[in-house]
Write a structure and sequence with these properties.
about 15% strand, 5 helices
Length: about 110
């Protein structure tokens, strides 16, 4: 649940998308997204508490990077829904094909 709450906020989702390219410092994140430092730090703290990012201190900089485990867990959870929707789309496709065949027959 923490994952969804953290990712639901648009600015945090922007940070996650940015970190997909690789680790970045708070300064690089603020520069690229046009945030101020306190704003970026607040969002990074929420992402960190949700377990989505990890931080490494390098000299006086804090480097953030994505943690793959929560995203793998999210993908596993979503897989059950993918199969459900795939089945529904397959059923819809079959239904539409039947309708199309019936339409062709009635045109004859």
């Amino acid at each position: 649940m923490k994952t969804f709450i953290a990712l639901a906020e648009p600015n945090r989702l922007l940070i996650v998308e940015l970190l997909r390219e690789g680790p970045l410092s708070v300064g690089e994140i603020t520069e690229r997204l046009g945030f101020n430092q306190p704003q970026a730090s607040k969002h990074l703290r929420v992402l960190s508490e949700a377990g989505l990012v990890e931080v490494q201190a390098v000299s006086n900089r804090r480097i953030y990077k994505l943690r793959p485990e929560p995203f793998k867990e999210l993908d596993t959870w979503m897989e059950s829904y993918r199969s459900l929707w795939k089945e529904r789309y397959d059923n819809l496709e079959e239904y539409l094909q039947k309708l199309q065949k019936n339409e062709v027959k009635s045109d004859d």
